[in-house]
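User: Predict the complex.
Assistant: Input components as received:
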Amino acid sequence: MIKRLTLILLLLGIGTLFAGLVMTYVPDEALNLTASYYAERTAEDLGAANIVTAIIVTYRGLDTLGEVTVLFLTAAIVGLVLSQTRGQTRGRSQTAEQDQTSLSNEDGSTPTPFNQDQASPTPATASRQLPPTGELLTTGTRLLLPLILLFGAYVFIHGHLTPGGGFQGGAILASAMLLLLLSDPARRFGHRMIAIIESIAGLAFVGIGIVGILLAGGFLDNRILPIGNFGELFSAGAIPIIYTFVGLKVGAEFSSMLVSLSETEEL
Amino acid sequence: MALIAMITGFILVLIGLYGALSNRNIMRMIVAFTVANTGVNLVLVAVGYMNGRTAPILNDAVPVAEAATRIIDPVPQALVLTAIVIGVGITALMLAYAYRLYQTKGSLDISRHTELKW
């Protein structure tokens, strides 16, 4: 009871702080200095129609590299934590099975451990039957999967023109993966393929950045390619190429997280 | 308009904090944290909004010459894009650790995990 009271008091305090912030909030009438620089110079300097994309890929490109690195680390740690657990559970579930058999055989003759070892190697996956997925989901997955992949590719290739970009497109690609896993939870994907796509995309991202130092103004400068006509697909220099690699990398990382989490099913 | 979004965001943050502090189940705490995360993102986007302006994408409706007077602040939007992606990563990490904790104790109740309690 006293705990709940402290909690409510704490929330009330934070709520008053927030209320003070909302009360005194005055929306800006004009863009501040940074924002107006981005608004005025993006089209001229970089040729990108989507200013958010220009900020993420070029003006603050180094931060995006850091963000992609954080995401990579997350995917790696999720894979590490879950793979260690998998090794442990396999050992433990086998001992649990052994305990069960020894319990059930308690009244009868005590079984020799040698016989148990021959009986227990049935993999834990076979013992757990998943209910079949419905016809609707299976057929729907087959129909929608190519469309979702195509839409994801569209979103990250057109990131410099329309709302969207590498992160959103990558998330859409990973949602296709999620749909596949929903329609067949026992399906196993090769980690190798995902790792190859991820490494190539990451290397290409950094490589384009270094080419920017050599040929243009600095790291991740998009003007290594001609800026082209404003508003066309092949414009804005290297932004569509960089965002394509970011999209592939983000898609691969989200997919690897999904696959790692789904493989915990085989308890 | 921006005020409504901002108030909603702050309320979501409070709901998330309440959920994270009052529940003892780790899964519920993770869900509460994602709710609070959404609230913070909503507040950030609301701060960048300006009345009567449009999205920071230049096209026929927003010519380049008038961009500075027609678009809203693009910097919070870029920030929130980053925050959403990192939020997904954090959620995945929390879920993985929750699974791992469940493996060690066979329970998702936070009061069972007392190793770091003082």
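Chain B is about 70% helix and 0% strand.
Let me know if you want any component modeled separately.
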